[in-house]
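Thread: "does anyone have the structure for this chain?"

Original post by V.I.:
We have the sequence but no experimental structure in hand. Need at least a predicted one for the grant figures.
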Amino acid sequence: MDTLASVSTPTLAQVVAVLDELYPPAWAEDWDRPGLVCGDPDAPVEHVLLAVDPVDVVVDEAIETGAQLVLAHHPLLMRGTSTVAANFPKGRVVHRLIREGVALFTAHTNADSARPGVSDALARVVGLVDLEPLVPASHDATLGLGRVGRLEPPLPLRAFAEQVAQGLPATAGGVRVSGDPDAIVERVAVCGGAGDSLFADVRAAGVDAYVTADLRHHPASEAREQAPGIALVEVSHWASEWPWLHGAAERLTAHLASLGLSATTTVSTRSSDPWSFHVPSPSETTR
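Reply from O.Q.:
Generated one for you, tokens below.
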């Protein structure tokens, strides 16, 4: 039997159905807005570009590579809006996508809660095993936000931070650390994206370190005061979520194949990290 002859190109509606099965909208937080943003459900999808942010440089890449669909982690229209006029950045993205025939689908906190999800990918690239949710979902304790795992082998904090930096894409901000550089790290919590709302859960998890992004001054300071034994490892928001894209691409391809459908998937090579460069403090090189 010639199996290649039975493989066909999916429509956007078929790809969306697969994505909704992989990352059910019901798993998203109440405030979130994942799903299909624009696109013709009947249009064929031969090429899917996966990216963290639906921004201009990603749209450029989608057009250049001939993608018919951008699968992004972050929603484009998170809050209510009364206009998508092209003289506003988000409106310009919508106009460009529609004009070029490129659909946009986003999987946000539903992809965070999924297993494997965003934090699973982050945990794996920084060296963790035996993963479990940091904040189990009420409907299924195997799902939820963040992950807790074991670092194998255990490492001093400085060495662990260096391993984190090596596992993630390079960014201008690099990796910032709060804690004793010689303290041994074995049990670790991670949360892809902004994670300072989960400090109480991190303390309850009894970890040695917490890897996340976007740590604000006061929550971070208070977290260290309340639990000085828990080191903080802060990374770029974009970098912390980027590892998920590869696994999402593989799962989408495999699920389509099981339905006799085929589409090329590509992970974006364009950084949407907002920071351009880093200037070391004069004493930084002596630390």
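V.I.: this helps a lot. The chain has a mean pLDDT of 95.
O.Q.: and DSSP finds ten helices and eleven strands in the chain.
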